[in-house]
Amino acid sequence: MGATTGPDPERAADVADAMRTLARELFLPDEQRHRAGEDHPLPLWHGQTSSQPSTVAAMLRLLQVPVGARVLDVGSGSGWTTALLGRLVGPGGTVLGLELDPQLADWGRGNVDACGMPWVTVERADPHVLGRPVDGGWDRVLVSAAPRALPETLVDQVAEDGRMVIPVRSTMHLVRRVDGRVLVTTHGSYTFVPLR
């Protein structure tokens, strides 16, 4: 059994495998691809970035994505995290990536479509709605931009026995819904673009 809140060793291996299979360089603009191996955020456009690989790995390990899960990726950017989530859930799952910037959303969708995972989609986010409420909630929610406070709107979208990983200000939060209760733990400091 894995730890209650921390990373599960078996799922950590799955994350490493997904990151080897879906190379970061496939999700970077041409002029940034030579820097794909650097463990730093890299600029995309309009102030958005591709998160550094060690941060992405840490978030995915904390999320503990099971095969077949229904996953929401808020702030999908280049589509890299969305594709990684798709690899983790497999064809029996579904992943929806949402991106507010229209140009980035269209480019990210193209990147994800090129991966050949029809169970994974990227859509433009509704600027008036945070996340995408669904019946029964999402099994996993990944948020790659930092709000100033934990958004209850997103917490409400986490299913029973579900998890959300989200940076709040500069601290990574794991939100779990267990027996109808919301449990929140913190897991280190990181820097993210603000959640709009």
TrEMBL record:
It is an enzyme of class 2 (transferase). Gene3D superfamilies: Vaccinia Virus protein VP39. It holds the Pfam family PCMT. It is found in: Cytoplasm. Keywords: Cytoplasm, Methyltransferase, S-adenosyl-L-methionine, Transferase. One of its GO terms (molecular function) is protein-L-isoaspartate (D-aspartate) O-methyltransferase activity. Its main location: cytoplasm. One of its GO terms (cellular component) is cytoplasm. InterPro entries: PCMT (IPR000682), SAM-dependent_MTases_sf (IPR029063). One of its GO terms (biological process) is methylation. Its EC number is 2.1.1.77. Belongs to the methyltransferase superfamily. L-isoaspartyl/D-aspartyl protein methyltransferase family. This is Protein-L-isoaspartate O-methyltransferase. It comes from Cellulomonas algicola.
